[in-house]
Write a structure and sequence with these properties.
2 domains; BirA Bifunctional Protein, domain 2; 445 residues; homodimer; alpha+beta; Rossmann fold
């Protein structure tokens, strides 16, 4: 028979079992963190009506979206989790309790140009808090707390959450007489870190700002003590004042929420490109890898679902690009090789052909919660141990005629080579005790 | 602005938060069960090259598949998890340890005619054990054990795993002189339960079997004591003998694996429509709802990845259609309403405007593993408690000026109405103790 070459599409992550176990550990941490903060899980379809997904429309989205027909239905794969959330909240408005706090971890699709580290199918892990008409600023303060907790649980210590308020930028633009060009100016400011002050100043001048005004704006935005700089401008513009009040309210709550001072800073150059942010905005950088950009971003928006409903639904949220984050951790060698990736805690190795005692031992270990596999193939004993080694299984439970007769197993710690003859129940206790040392249980879960 | 009607496509399940929490509980049980049996997690893309997915081709698949182009790439959404597994094992053959035991829980897509209880996007939860050249029959015996464990953990007690061996059917066909029509006869036998003995007999006669032979076949297949009936035929056909030996080997191991006698039976009418099964086959019925058909099926195949590789890769596996199973459980009212679906264990209710002590209490509870939300909106206290009620949160932690001054919270059990003034640490202990009573922890996890 002619063979078809097995291949996985470029831009679609597919991992070997070891790295997959690490990826699953990352997902588990995010799930646990989001649940700890009282977010409810949601799971919306990956396929939606193209009309619904493209309600907002717009350049990049239209270009990158996977859109297709089935019968006479115009379909598309979701490109983020925010639009499906907007649809969901608009559809189910009457049945939800507000503030509605949901998390969703799911695959999204963007047909971007293929390049290293860019994915066309990738996981996003989002949280959002949606208010009905209004939403207190204290919700915004929780976002850095969640980021901090998630990264800490992932073992990432050296990061910085940078935050700003879009109202501050808008207020400054108004003060400096930037009128209709505000959106373009915002876009330029957002590029400050990428292209440098000089080039941004040039763009601002092109946009019609006088060189003095441009300099003044950039001086404020890059000030060493942004809060003091802003204080000096207090009372001059209402929008600026409102933004400053929000930023103060958020930062005042951070110590109580357990976010240490070194984990965040106010950075007035953060704008977030997306045009729906209207208040607080967040970006998160790995201090040792600034070149990878923000690994977790988000902010406050006024109107989640304006395309679907006239209900006013303000919200605040954040999104982690999990596939990309995992790729970066892997590329930078930051994943802990010590993390157990074996599919089981114990491999039962039968010495003879009789399988009955082997499967009874497996059942006994499993009943105690030990992840157990029986090696059932008729291979030489050496091959059976080689299999355990290849999978990095911590324990082998050897069972032959003697063990069957005496109701025991030969439990071998494959990391130390030590072997003891014990009952299956004793074996389970030994394995679980060792497991407890390897993986620190999260309290209360 | 003109609004677009928010809607979810027909045949795509999307749940409200409460049912979603129940669905997640089902998924968690399946994941834990599969891991307990030493299966490693896999996550392949939902989108693959159409050429790779359709290697086998064939009528229903081609008709139902979601296929589309992006640029000049011919793509399709996966319609099961078996073809992606075949591709994966063929691609990564040199890097996997065999037997390769993987589980995958993921969405698959079939553009079926929309009807109640039929889904176009649905979760499958599959396990497979893949051998390199050969695979011991003991692996087949584990399949009913996994089904049994999963259903038991889901709280489903009244089910029956029906099993057969395709070699027995093939042997019987050979004995009765069914030659080239074997596949068609198999198809007819597979319908026995659905259309009844008479109609199957008519089909068999149409296929060229004499009425006596057809009767003889159907007598054997529906015999009250199939093993005894088969024993009487031992030695007459090699294929039949091989099938009988496999069935005996599997059933002999079931008691040791902890599968109780009442949970399974040999049923020679089980054939499984799919033409790639070559040995043991399994179906699982809910005893009280036989009309919903098999909720978990699988079997042994000789050649997983013949379309991609000349490596001989026999395997045995099973698949649970989770979305459909959940739909059935929901429809039949079998889901436990007592299962907590609240997104948090405690809702912090601030009495005044000061949020500092409120967020400190939240941080303290979360540090102990209590899923905690702060209700930050400026509403009346009554509205805050109504919110807790709507979400069925078990505890409210009321914090006002007195509590902030004394470092306490007013912890109210919302199920009993009892309130105590305690420190956050004491509150956490009370909440976690109550939680332990509600959800029985799985040992060792």
């Amino acid at each position: 028979m002619e063979k078809i070459k097995p291949r996985t599409l470029s831009g679609f992550m597919e991992l070997l079992p070891g790295p997959q176990a690490q990826m699953d550990a990352v997902m588990r941490v995010l799930r646990e963190t989001y649940e700890l903060y009282g977010f409810t899980a949601l799971d919306t379809p990956a396929v939606e009506s193209a009309q619904v997904l493209l309600a907002k429309g717009g350049g990049e989205t239209e270009k990158q979206i996977y859109r297709f027909s089935k019968g006479d239905t115009d379909l598309a794969l979701r490109f983020d989790l925010t639009v499906p959330l907007a649809k969901y909240v608009a559809m189910n408005y009457g049945q939800l309790a507000f503030p509605f706090r949901r998390y969703q971890i799911g695959k999204v699709y963007r047909g971007e140009r293929a390049q290293r580290g860019r994915f066309r199918e990738f996981y996003q892990a989002d949280i959002d808090v949606i208010g009905d008409g209004a939403l207190d600023i204290a919700n915004d303060a929780e976002m850095p707390a969640v980021i901090c907790e998630a990264l800490r649980r992932l073992g990432i210590e050296r990061f910085c959450i940078r935050m700003n308020d879009r109202k501050i930028l808008n207020g400054l633009f108004a003060l400096l007489g930037v009128g209709e060009q505000a959106a373009a100016v915002l876009g330029a400011v957002d590029k400050l870190e990428k292209i440098g002050r000089e080039k941004v100043a040039a763009i601002l001048t092109e946009l019609g700002m006088g060189p003095d005004k441009a300099d003044q704006l950039l001086d404020i935005l890059t000030s060493a003590d942004p809060m003091a700089t802003l204080d000096a401008l207090a009372g001059k513009n209402e929008t600026l004042d409102a933004g400053l009040a929000e930023l103060r309210a958020v930062t005042a709550l951070l110590p109580g929420l357990g976010v240490p001072d070194h984990a965040w800073r106010v950075d007035l150059t953060i704008a977030r490109g997306l045009d729906y942010y209207t208040g607080m905005v967040y970006e998160t950088q790995l201090l040792d890898y600034p070149e990878v950009g923000s690994i977790c971003s988000g902010g406050r928006y006024d109107d989640l679902a304006g395309y679907y409903t006239s209900q006013k639904l303000p919200g605040v949220g954040l999104s982690i690009g999990v596939t990309r984050l995992f790729y970066i951790l892997q590329e930078q060698g930051l994943l802990n090789e010590e993390l157990p990736t074996a599919p089981c805690d114990a491999l039962i190795i039968p010495l003879g052909e009789d399988m009955d005692w082997a499967v009874r031992c497996a059942a006994a270990l499993r009943a105690e919660g030990v992840r157990t596999q029986v090696y059932a193939e008729r291979k030489k004993v050496k091959a059976k141990f080689a299999y355990a080694d290849k999978l990095a299984v911590p324990y082998a439970a050897v069972v032959g005629g003697d063990e069957a007769a005496s109701g025991t197993v030969g439990l071998k710690d494959l990391r130390t080579g030590q072997q003891v003859t014990v009952t299956p129940a004793e074996a389970a206790a030994i394995i679980l005790k060792s497991k407890a040392r390897l993986v620190k249980p999260v309290k209360g879960s």
